[in-house]
Design a protein that fits this description.
Number of strands: 47
Structural class: alpha+beta
Shape: elongated
Helix content: 25-40%
Largest sheet: 10 strands, antiparallel
Distance between the termini: 106 Å
Mean pLDDT: 79
Oligomer: single chain
Strand content: 25-35%
Low-confidence stretches: 225-241, 327-332
Length: 1287
């Protein structure tokens, strides 16, 4: 006691001392174990000493105090209390023969405490700590083995307690060898309502029961079957399906006996484990089960009454369930992030280089504008000077010819020329000077501010973080990209303004003088020629001086004035052309940036899938009676037509899930606005190219915080706060709907596909049993909870990219890791018996003792998200025995047996893995036996003295018999099982029409894009993600082919692919999914044509030359691979292109021009006007001796394939063709297309006719025109196709 007091702060020294006392003075150990002095860890090490010692009143009192009256509620104190309860049960049994009253008092106390635990409130009874204490009390009652406790024990088998309680109750029946206990074990083993681990334990106990009447080997073996899987579907009250998968891992039933008939030892191990995965729209539930029992028993048959005693047995029970948030199992694999990273990593450098190169090109394009700016201003400043020079020249001309008499005919002609030219000068001068200010203003508005704004926006593009934060980087680039596009668009408009103001053919500034000046120049030349002839032939008959004055004035003043007027705006126009070329370079750089930017989005979406911004709510509202369920398509109590509900907290900030334009519900959004509260709803029209044509509605957002209508908002920016309304079961939520806009119709789609996977999910773990139980000599001597700590959140692996802003999902797992050690306090008495009798005058003493030590380490590691469970049970034990028979007093004969019975080390390992297919489970055990030896000796001994002063002298001794166990070391068994997924992935049918080979695939070319930047959209609904290994996309010209777009990874359900695929051909898009077994499913859909060129046209005037002053006629043929828009426009002007100064743009209906005349006046009236030439296209028939073009037209109309014909009146030949002349070719229409390109070649005798209505063709006749002689006129056509391409 003094030593204990002095070393109270040294637990190790105290433990060593107390274990020594336990070995040598067991009966006195209770005196020094002080509950109020010794630390908990010392008590736990030394309390086992009391399990074999005869319990005294003081020991019982001390155990009672430890068990039921400890104030301390720490984990260590609870372990001491539980151990004391178990020892009380053991004490009760030992007191049963000597002090039945004390024994009964202990048992009654245990029953009283058990009743208190049974009658607590339900919410307390469900707590793991309460259930564990409940099981400890049952184990203690089983240790006591009082007869009246049997009914209580059986009741706890059948009552709906936790598994740990049921296992304790079954274990408590081990001392009851009657029919009632046998029946309880049999009924439990046969009752399928019990958990299979409970049935297995019951069956095994029944097999060892002395009164068993049946063989339950089959029940035991049922729990030891190989790995297998079953699946069933459960339907809830809403009709929503729930998939349940049960997987049973291979169990173990192993035992081995060593030794001979008289002395033997049995080692055994049993394992049963399985798990179940169930999924519904809201959660994933994994139920796991692992049960292990390892034992060492020794059998002695040295006399007529054989002995069997339990050296050590360890039982591990770990079972429960883990519940995750929704979308945990969806595309979730431990290796997924690494796989995504491995794919994206080599791409990121290439993608960032492409974006940076385009940005650098944009910035560099600004330098091109500097010199143009200076030259434009110089040209503009020079115009008044040039006009002044013209005026001065005309004045000199007027002065020169004034020296010639007015009646001179050539003077009169020269005056007329002056009047015409001066009039043109006056018009140009007045209009040009009036245009100087707007031209200057337009140039100033364009340069340098426009390019500077482009550069300023471009300089905001940062691509360095694309490697480790692709979504955030692209979102930041999106903001800068939007500003770049706006700046380039503004620049384009201003460049167009300058060009239109300067363009000499524009009505806005001056009338084009070139034709008139050309005619006047011709007249001057003719007049000069006349004067030269006059001087040459008339000679002295005329006044040569006068004529020379006129001629020199014409040549020296008037002709240069005309030239100056014609060249007046050349510098300005040249620099405007240079400005336009500079803008084209800027526009090309923007196109390059667009391609690089969209390619980066495509790669990110294809690898990571299209997802809401990470800060957007992602947990579905669970079901309740008021509002139903929050999964798609939720009705939320009839409030909404579609969508999902995502839980929030009152006032939670709601960040934009995508980039888009904010629209309030009362704006012109063509949706069912009546279904949404306008004061709490915001609409996002998504703008990023990869979410084109999607509209997102968010309801239950405070309007006071909603951005203004029309505001552009970027993903991750704040749009409002959640309302505090609790419409459903006091749970605030936002309602989210997503619509796809197709052909002016809105189709609801499931927003769940965009939910972010929960890489740090909320997790709820409920353990039904989590304990280790140790038995020795038939008594439960220790019982500890294991693996009950709060799970710790751990990274699976080191971060993929060690940067704080890392966006790659850093997969984390909730991990329980626990290790317990159980060490016996010295040698524990397993069995002891001693008898003293007198045979006549000769005393005979029989004594037999067996002792044992054990050292057990149990460790468990459970990763709930990685879905892996590992357990190790390492058990070392030693058993020794001493027995003797003495005959005589001071001189006696002795026969003794003694030595080491057993020294063994057993290490069992169990592992379950069901995180990814193939599922696997394995179990193994290593066994080590060291050499053991028993000797049977006989001796003659003489004793002198007595007590402590006795002196023993061995007079004779010899070994009569010897027993040994050979050493053994190695793996005793190793079992494993693998389960593959035998069902391939599957695609479900989409909710809207598709042009699919299968209805489970949708594809279309995206409209409203530049023809040089085409893209297509693919959408599928892949449901079976349980074992999805890979999903890929490919495009070919034949079904399942990849000759156009080679196989590319495809994550998620929807993907926008920006790619210039082969144009004008039908293409097949195939999506293929593969599982770990290599089982494939694929779905294909077809693009009937992929259009990468604008619509095209051919314009054929009736004649290339005309003398009609008021009418022009032309055949117009329209071509497009995708399909023309409903309207096209035609204009006439003195220049090609936009500026039409004769007939302004007029709209015509495309459908109308397909209709030939309803009442044709002749066969030829169904054909275009004849054009000289012969078609190079395919000839289907040649006819001779045809009387005229009318008859040739009839021949064509009667031949179905005929679309055009050539007719020669000279030779009476009619040639029929199956095609028509193709669209215009050349630099103005140098686009890839799939149209036939037959040409009309020159011919001296043939004329060509086309059937009207073929290729959208018709004759246009424009009347009531005012046309000038000698002027060239241009017929212009502007048309659109259904993709929005314009030409």
């Amino acid at each position: 006691e003094e030593y204990i007091t002095e070393n109270i702060d040294s637990p190790r020294q105290l433990t060593v001392l107390l274990q020594a006392l336990c070995t040598s003075h067991r009966k006195d150990i209770g005196i020094v174990i002080k509950d109020d002095i010794l630390p908990d860890d010392v008590l736990l090490q030394t309390l086992p000493c009391l399990s074999a010692a005869k319990p005294t009143t003081g020991v019982v009192s001390m155990l009672n105090s430890m068990a039921f009256h400890r104030v301390d509620r720490s984990v260590g104190a609870q372990d001491v209390a539980n151990k004391a309860v178990l020892l009380l049960g053991a004490a009760a049994r030992k007191l049963g023969d000597t002090d039945s009253k004390a024994s009964n008092e202990i048992v009654e106390k245990l029953h009283h405490e058990l009743e208190k635990h049974t009658n607590v409130k339900r919410e307390v009874a469900g707590l793991a700590g309460h259930q564990f204490r409940h099981a400890v009390l049952i184990d203690a009652i089983g240790n006591a083995a009082a007869g009246h406790s049997l009914d209580t024990i059986i009741t706890h088998i059948n009552a709906p307690h936790s598994l740990t309680v049921q296992h304790s109750a079954l274990r408590a029946l081990r001392h009851y060898e009657n029919k009632k206990s046998a029946k309880a074990l049999l009924d439990t083993a046969l009752d399928s309502s019990f958990h299979h681990s409970v049935r297995h334990v019951a069956a095994h106990a029944y097999q060892q029961h002395p009164l068993r009447e049946r063989d339950l080997t089959n029940i035991i073996e049922e729990s030891l079957h190989h790995l297998s899987r079953g699946a069933r579907s459960v339907t809830d009250t809403r009709g929503s399906g729930e998939n349940v998968y049960n997987v049973s891992a291979p169990g173990v039933g192993w035992s081995r006996r060593f030794g001979g008939r008289n002395i033997s030892t049995e080692l055994g191990n049993r394992q049963i484990n399985d798990y179940m995965i169930s999924t519904d729209p809201f959660s994933a539930v994994y139920e796991f089960s692992l049960h292990s029992s390892t034992w060492v028993e020794t059998f002695l048959e040295l006399s007529d009454s054989p002995e069997q005693f339990n050296v050590i047995s360890t039982s591990l029970c770990y079972q429960g369930k883990a519940t995750y948030d929704e979308n945990m199992l969806q595309n979730y694999r431990q290796s997924l992030s690494q796989e995504q990273y491995d794919i994206f990593s080599p791409l990121s450098s290439h993608l960032s280089d492409g974006i940076q190169s385009s940005v650098d090109s944009l910035i560099a394009s600004e330098a091109n504008y500097d010199g143009i700016f200076d030259r434009l201003h110089a040209a503009l400043s020079a115009m008044p000077v040039k006009l002044g020079d013209v005026q001065s020249t005309l004045t000199d001309y007027r002065t020169a010819i004034s020296r010639v008499p007015a009646d001179n005919s050539y003077r009169q002609s020269a005056d007329m020329l002056y009047t015409a030219i001066n009039g043109i000068y006056i018009d140009i001068n007045s209009q040009a000077l009036a245009a100087m200010e707007p031209i200057s203003l337009s140039i100033n508005a364009t340069l340098p501010n426009g390019p500077a704004r482009v550069t300023a926006a471009a300089q905001d593009v940062e691509v360095a973080s694309l490697f480790f934060s692709p979504r955030q980087t692209l979102n930041d680039i999106s903001s800068a990209y939007t500003r770049i596009v706006a700046a380039v668009s503004a620049l384009q408009q201003r460049v167009g303004n300058v060009q239109s103001l300067v363009d000499p053919f524009s009505d806005d500034v001056w009338i084009n003088p070139s034709p008139v000046l050309g005619r006047l120049s011709t007249e001057i030349s003719r007049l000069v020629d006349d004067i030269n002839r006059l001087i040459q032939y008339e000679g002295a008959a005329v006044d040569v001086t006068e004529y020379l004055i006129v001629r020199e004035a014409l040549l020296d003043q008037l002709l240069p004035a005309i030239t100056s007027l014609e060249e007046l705006a050349d510098d300005l126009i040249a620099n405007v052309d240079a400005l336009h070329m500079a803008f084209q370079r800027t526009d090309q750089s923007l196109n390059s940036l667009t391609k690089s930017y969209e390619l980066a989005w495509f790669e990110v979406d294809s690898i990571f899938g299209q997802k809401f911004w990470s800060t957007f709510p992602s947990k579905l509202r669970s079901c309740d009676a008021t509002c139903g369920c929050g999964n798609y398509p939720t009705t939320t109590g009839g409030l909404y037509p579609s969508g999902i509900d995502l839980t929030t907290t009152s006032g939670q900030q709601i960040f934009a899930p995508f980039t888009g334009i904010v629209r309030l519900i009362n704006s012109s959004i063509p949706l069912e606005a009546s279904m949404h509260d306008a004061d709490k709803t915001v609409v996002l029209t998504l703008t990023d190219f990869n979410y084109q044509d999607l509209v997102l509605i968010i309801t239950n957002v405070n309007t006071a915080s909603i951005r203004a209508d029309g505001t552009r908002i970027y993903a991750g920016e704040l749009i409002g706060t959640a309302t505090s309304d609790t419409l459903c079961n006091d749970q605030p939520f936002i309602h989210v709907e997503v619509y796809k806009r197709l052909d002016r119709t809105f189709h609801a789609i499931n927003p769940g596909q965009f939910l972010q996977a929960q890489y740090q999910p909320s997790l709820n773990v409920e353990l039904q049993c989590s304990d280790v139980t140790v038995m020795q000599s038939g008594m439960v001597v220790d019982k500890r909870p294991i693996g009950t700590e709060e799970p710790t959140l751990q990274l699976f692996d080191p971060p993929l990219v060690d940067i704080a802003r890392n966006e790659f999902p850093q997969l984390r797992d909730y991990v329980v890791s626990d290790t317990y050690s159980f060490v016996s306090a010295g040698e524990t008495e397993l069995f002891s018996d001693s008898t003293f009798i007198l045979v006549g005058p000769i005393p005979v003493e029989f004594s037999f003792t067996a002792t044992g030590r054990y050292d057990i380490t149990v460790s468990i590691e459970s990763g709930y998200l990685t879905k892996a469970l590992k357990a190790n049970v390492a058990q070392s034990s030693t058993a020794s025995m001493q027995g003797y028979m003495r005959v005589g007093n001071s001189l006696y004969a002795e026969v003794a047996v003694g030595g080491k019975l057993l020294e063994s080390s057993v290490q069992g390992y169990m592992e379950q893995q069901w995180q990814s297919w193939p599922l696997s489970a394995k179990s193994s055990m290593d066994l080590k036996l060291t050499p053991s030896l028993l000797n049977l000796t006989a001796g003659l001994i003489r004793q002198t003295g007595a007590g402590a002063f006795a002196d023993l002298e061995v007079l004779d001794s010899r070994i009569l018999w010897q027993y040994s166990v050979p050493p053994l070391q190695g793996e005793e068994y190793a079992y494993s099982g693998v389960l593959h997924d035998e069902s391939p992935p599957y695609f479900t049918q989409l909710s809207y029409d598709s042009n699919a080979v299968s209805p489970s695939c949708y594809v279309r070319q995206l409209p409203d894009r530049f023809y040089s930047l085409p893209a297509f959209e693919v959408e599928v609904d892949l449901q079976d993600c349980e074992d999805l290994l890979n999903t890929s996309l490919r495009v070919g010209t034949f079904l399942n082919g990849d000759d156009v777009f080679q196989t590319h990874v495809f994550s998620g359900q929807r993907l926008i692919v920006p790619d210039n695929l082969e144009t004008g051909k039908g293409l097949y898009v195939t999506v293929e999914a593969i599982n770990s077994m290599g089982l494939k499913s694929l779905v294909s859909c077809q693009l009937f044509t992929y259009d990468t060129s604008p619509p095209m046209a051919r314009i054929n005037p009736r004649t290339l030359f005309s003398s009609h002053p008021s009418q022009l006629e032309s055949l117009i043929v329209l071509f497009d691979e995708y399909g023309l828009d409903d309207m096209y426009e035609v204009s006439i002007g003195t220049s090609p292109g936009e500026y039409s100064n004769v007939v302004q743009w007029q709209q015509f209906n495309v459908n109308r021009i397909n209709t030939p005349p309803s009442s044709p006046s002749s066969n030829l009236s169904l054909f275009s006007a004849p054009r000289a030439g012969q078609l190079t296209g395919n000839i289907i028939q040649v006819s001779h001796d045809v009387a005229g073009a009318e008859d040739c037209a009839l021949t064509c109309l009667n031949n179905a394939p005929c679309k055009s014909f050539d007719y020669s009146a000279d030779d009476s030949i009619c040639v029929l063709h199956s095609d028509i002349e193709g669209p215009v070719t050349g630099p103005a229409a140098n686009y890839p297309n799939n149209f036939a390109t037959p040409l009309l070649r020159a011919s001296f005798s043939f004329f060509h006719y086309e059937v009207l209505g073929i290729g959208n063709s018709t004759n246009h006749i424009f009347t009531d025109l005012t046309l000038e002689g000698g002027q060239t006129y241009y017929i212009n056509v502007r048309l659109w196709n259904r993709l929005g391409y314009v030409s």
